[in-house]
Amino acid sequence: MTSHSAALTAIVGTDPGLRNVLCRARLVAPTRTPVLVTGESGTGKELLARALHELGPEPGGPFVTVNCGALPRELAESELFGHERGAFTGAAARRAGWFEEASGGTLVLDEIGELPAELQPKLLRVLETGRVRRVGGQGESAVRVRVVAMTLRDLRREAHRGGFRLDLYHRLAGFELALPPLRRRRGDVAALAQRFLDELAPELGPRTLEPAALARLEEHDWPGNVRELRNVIRRAAILSGSRIDVAALELDATGACDLRLPAHAAEGPPPSDGDLLALEGKSFSDLEREIFGWALRRTSGSRRRAAALLGISRSTFCDRVKRFGVVG
């Protein structure tokens, strides 16, 4: 067994919650215990599954990933367990299923919550007996497979509500690893961003983040998690020179924190009672329209500088200006 994993070291972060997950992963990896990896899309479930294989009892064996949500319903059983020749229309030859293909290694069942209900008891039986029967077959074949299931759904809740077999859930969740979303470990954003910039350097040249740009990244809620951050950094690196400023960050507005004026734009005396009373009766959209109009006037109509002034991406700023019909 290897003492380290390239996939595990690729999961960057010092957040205590994340480090606890990785510590638990190292402890369970050498065993054949089924593992359920949970977490939102983009949190690194695939990397963690790969690490469990690399640190597992048979790291040199096959590593097979199956997206249960993409399996055609009528062919799902054949895909997982294989079929004999003539088992159904189109079965012109005998075929091994994914369990047999992964024997001696790891089988990753991605989006396990999407597995058709009629297949769940058959999967449970394979997990309990270590044997598979091909569609149309009479005998069974032994398989030695480490199963890692992944899901972004709350499978425990669905199981207790009857949306997923409870006994299968308990079998799959012999050991559960829950990856935290990026918004709960904002302190890791800087290290992740630097990792992505380092990866891009051979292709695009060295890049550094301006302090204001890094602050903006750390404020974002990251609905797409680490995957979204990687994409944002790549786009910003393409759009920028050696230094990346706030204007180069194209962030999804749905993941933005509450709109606020940056400190340098809010300098001056605090608002008077009269100023605050003037806001009464106005909708949030009206207030946004006024803020965007103010930013345009402040920057002589430059949308790029106006977006930077408000700390949002230029694309988000332009979308809002178009939606509100703002004229600077």
Explain how this protein is built.
There is one protein chain. The strands form four sheets. Strands 2-5-8-1-9 form a five-stranded parallel β-sheet. The chain has a two-stranded antiparallel sheet with strand order 3-4. It has three domains: 6-180, P-loop containing nucleotide triphosphate hydrolases (Rossmann fold, 3-Layer(aba) Sandwich); 184-257, Helicase, Ruva Protein, domain 3 (Orthogonal Bundle); 260-328, Homeodomain-like (Arc Repressor Mutant, subunit A). The protein is elongated. The chain contains 15 helices and eleven strands. By secondary structure, the protein is of the alpha/beta class. Helix 13 crosses helix 14 (303-310) and helix 14 (303-310) packs across helix 15. The chain has helices spanning 6-9, 16-28, 45-54, 76-81, 98-101, 120-129, 155-160, 166-172, 189-204, 211-219, 225-239, 273-277, 284-298, 303-310, 314-324, and strands at residues 35-38, 63-67, 82-83, 95-96, 105-110, 131-132, 141-142, 145-151, 175-178, 208-209, 243-244.
Helical stretch tally: 15
CATH homologous superfamily grouping of the largest domain: P-loop containing nucleotide triphosphate hydrolases
By CATH, the architecture of the largest domain is named 3-Layer(aba) Sandwich
Distance between the ends: 64 Å
Instruction: Just give the CATH class of the largest domain.
Output: Alpha Beta
Please give the order of strands in the largest beta sheet. Answer: 2-5-8-1-9
User: How would you state the average pLDDT, rounded?
Assistant: 84
Strand content: 5-15%
Secondary-structure content class: alpha/beta
Helix content, binned percent: 40-55%
**Uncertain regions: pLDDT < 50 for 5+ in a row?**
256-273
Give the H and E element order.
HHEHEHEEHEHEEEHHEHEHHEHHHH
| Number of spatially distinct domains | 3
Number of strands: 11
Q: According to CATH, what is the topology of the largest domain?
A: Rossmann fold
Principal-axes shape call: elongated
Q: What is the CA-based Rg, rounded?
A: 26 Å
Summarize the main sheet: 5 strands, parallel
